[in-house]
Amino acid sequence: MDKSKKRRKVVIITDGDNVARQAAETAAAQVGGRCISRSAGNPTPLSGDEIIDMIKQSPADPVVVMVDDRGKPGLGEGEKVIKCLAESKDIEILGVIAVASNTQDVEGVKVDCSVDSSLNIISGSVDKLGNPSGNGVVYGDTLEILNTIKVPVIVGVGDPGKMNGRDDCVLGAPVLTKALRVIMGQE
Fold first, then answer.
1. Residue 114: which of 130, 94, 95, 92 has the closest Cα?
2. For 102, how many CA atoms within 13 A lie in the half-sphere containing its CB?
3. HSE of 88 in the Cβ direction (CA atoms, 13 Å)?
4. What is the pTM of this model?
5. Residues 6+ apart with CB under 8 A from 90
6. Strand, helix or coil at 10?
7. What are the phi and psi torsion angles at 127 (to 5°)?
8. Vertex 9, ends 31 and 59: CA angle to 5°?
9. What is the C-alpha to C-alpha distance for residues 158 and 85, in angstroms, rounded to an integer?
10. What is the pLDDT of residues 76-100, one digit of tens each?
């Protein structure tokens, strides 16, 4: 199958601030993937179609994409991108890394597992600091769309930069890297 017709393998991270961008770039490099750095922003600055065009040009899979709603409840910019990617025939979403936040009045999303700030894979959820929260639901502003679309796996993580340095890029962004490896079936 020629490369232009191949469905591109994508992992979505539901955070897009500068710290998350650096962690996503580091984690993607750790697993041999690519990160669409221009998808970072708070909120997501590009449309789903623009991101799909960039994904198609990426030289390696998986392609990591960041989405962010900047705390906006309801269908924000990041969630519109997730919906667009999920509907694309050119994209295969391998999974979503659901980043916990302190956003109020959100439904959240049930996760398949989480990577806590100590790098344990747990069956429940985590909070913004990467501590186990136990109820299986991660709460964040860019997650509720995941209750209406199908993705193979959702892995919860704390907020990059808010886990007492445990996901620092100097360390290789270990929490995000481990979450990527879980989604890729390497953990």
1. 130
2. 2
3. 24
4. 0.95
5. 7, 8, 52, 55, 56
6. strand
7. -95, -175
8. 70
9. 23
10. 999 999 999 999 999 999 999 999 9
